[in-house]
Design a protein that fits this description.
Shape: globular
Mean pLDDT: 93
Strand order of the largest sheet: 7-8-9-10
Low-confidence stretches: none
Distance between the termini: 52 Å
Largest sheet: 4 strands, mixed
Number of helices: 8
Helix content: 25-40%
Order of helices and strands: HHEEEEHEEHHEHHEEEH
Strand content: 15-25%
Structural class: alpha+beta
Length: 266
C-alpha cells in the first residue's frame, strides 16, 4: 500500500529530506566552481572491472548499464576542470547487506590540478559539514519526526591508516585482520564507533591502502611506494565515499598498466 504510506506525514518527510540534501550538495559544489553534467547510462563496455554489470540487448548488440560515471567525468575534467554528477548506478551484485545495492543514486565528482589526496579530503570535510549543518537548519521538523540523531562531526574529519585500523581492532577485540587488504564490515563498524568516542566524529577516513591492490590509474605514494593515494570515508559503520588521486603522468600510467598485465596499445 505504498501509494497510501507515502501520504503519511512522517514518511513524506523522507522525500523532503532527500530532495534538500541534493540541493545542499549542489549548493556546496557549485560554490567551489564545480559544473554538473549528465553521463550516458547505457554503455558498450563495463566501466569498472571490479563490479558485476547488468547486460541488455541494445538494438541487436550487447550493452551494459553504467556502474559509474568514471570515464566520462575524467574526460570532462580536461575541459571544465571541476565536474560532478547526480546519477543512477547499477551493479549486478545479489547482496542484501548494507554494503551493496543493485541500483542507487550516487554523487560522482572529479577535480583537476590538485596537490594530493589531502585536497580531496578537504573537499569532503567541507561537504559533509555543510550538508549536515544545512539539513538540520532546513528540515529539522522532518528529521525529528523520524527520530534522527544529528551526527557528530569535526571540522577536519579524522584519518586512520589501514595498518592503524588493524592494530586498534586487534587491541580492542583480540582478532587479527592484518592480512585483509580492505577494512572488513566489522572493522568499519568498530572504527566509526571508536572515532565517535575518541575523536568526536562519526565519520572517519581509512587511508594508505596497499599499492599491490591498486588500479593502474591510481597514484602511488611517492614517500611510501607501498601504499596508494586512496582512502575510504566511513560513516556510522558504512563506507559512503571512495576517494583516490589519479595518476596523471603519461609515462607512469603506461608503466603501471604494463606492470599489471595490460596492453596500452589495445
Amino acid at each position: 500500500h505504498k501509494v497510501l504510506n507515502i501520504r503519511n506525514v512522517t514518511e513524506r518527510g523522507i522525500w523532503k529530506i532527500q530532495a534538500a540534501i541534493g540541493d545542499h550538495i549542489r549548493e556546496y559544489l557549485k560554490s567551489l566552481d564545480f559544473i554538473e553534467f549528465h553521463s550516458p547510462k547505457i554503455l558498450a563496455e563495463a566501466t569498472e572491472g571490479g563490479a558485476e554489470v547488468f547486460k541488455l540487448n541494445y538494438f541487436g548488440r550487447e550493452a551494459t548499464l553504467a556502474q559509474s560515471a568514471q570515464f566520462y567525468k575524467q574526460m570532462m575534467v580536461a575541459s571544465l576542470e571541476r565536474v560532478f554528477e547526480f546519477g543512477a548506478t547499477y551493479r549486478a551484485e545479489p547482496s542484501i547487506t548494507s554494503r551493496h545495492m543493485s541500483e542507487f543514486i550516487t554523487v560522482d565528482a572529479e577535480m583537476g590540478f590538485i596537490d594530493g589526496l589531502e585536497d580531496i579530503m578537504a573537499l569532503l570535510d567541507g561537504l559533509m559539514n555543510h550538508v549536515i549543518d544545512k539539513i538540520w537548519e532546513t528540515n529539522r521538523k522532518e528529521l525529528e519526526a523520524l527520530k534522527s540523531v544529528r551526527p557528530k562531526l569535526t571540522e577536519k574529519l579524522p584519518i586512520v591508516t589501514m595498518q592503524k585500523l588493524h592494530d586498534l581492532y586487534l587491541q580492542e577485540t583480540g582478532t587479527d585482520l592484518k592480512n585483509e587488504k580492505d577494512p572488513t564490515s566489522a572493522e568499519e563498524k568498530f572504527i566509526c564507533e571508536y572515532s565517535a568516542q575518541n575523536w568526536e566524529s562519526e565519520a572517519v577516513y581509512v587511508s594508505e591502502f596497499p599499492a599491490s591492490h591498486m588500479k593502474f590509474y591510481h597514484y602511488r605514494n611517492e614517500k611510501n611506494p607501498e601504499v596508494a593515494e586512496r582512502a575510504d570515508l566511513l560513516f556510522r559503520g558504512v563506507e559512503i565515499v571512495t576517494l583516490s588521486r589519479r595518476e596523471h603522468r603519461y609515462d607512469k600510467i603506461v608503466e603501471q598498466l604494463r606492470a599489471m598485465g595490460g596492453d596500452p596499445d589495445h
